[in-house]
């Protein structure tokens, strides 16, 4: 599990994936729409989902804890 520290109140899911996984916005869109991303254990298919401190995001075999 990798800890990610937020400087803002929240970050959008697609932006988080681009930063943490080093993928393009198009790739982030595809994996989110394909149901390959979980937020707090639930599949999330909205690219603009706001991710707040205390959340856990799972994608492409990686787990990120947002602090």
Radius of gyration: 10 Å
Looking at the chains present, what oligomeric state does this protein adopt?
single chain
* Nearest-integer average pLDDT: 96
Percent strand: 25-35%
Strand order, largest beta sheet: 1-7-6-3-4
Helix/strand/pairing category: alpha+beta
Could you name the ranges where pLDDT drops below 50 across 5 or more consecutive residues? none
End-to-end separation: 12 Å
Question: Tell me, what's the shape?
Answer: globular
Compose a concise summary of this entry.
Helix content is 27%, strand content 34%.
Report on the structure:
The structure is a single chain. This protein is 27% helix and 34% strand. The protein is of the alpha+beta class and 67 residues long. The strands form two sheets. Strands 1-7-6-3-4 form a five-stranded mixed sheet, with helices on one face. The longest helix has 9 residues, at 13-21.
List descriptors.
single chain; 67 residues; 7 strands; five-stranded mixed sheet; two-stranded antiparallel sheet; alpha+beta
Produce the secondary structure layout.
Layout: E1 2-4, E2 10-12, H1 13-21, H2 25-33, E3 37-39, E4 42-43, E5 50-52, E6 56-59, E7 62-66
Parallel strand pairs: 1-7
Antiparallel strand pairs: 2-5, 3-4, 3-6, 6-7
Helix pairs in contact: 1-2
């Amino acid at each position: 599990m990798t800890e990610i520290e937020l400087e803002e109140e929240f970050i959008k899911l697609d932006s988080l994936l681009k930063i943490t996984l080093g993928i393009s916005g198009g790739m982030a869109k595809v994996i989110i729409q394909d149901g390959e991303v979980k937020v707090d254990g639930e599949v999330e298919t909205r690219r603009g989902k706001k991710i707040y401190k205390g959340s856990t995001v799972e994608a492409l075999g990686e787990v990120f804890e947002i602090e």
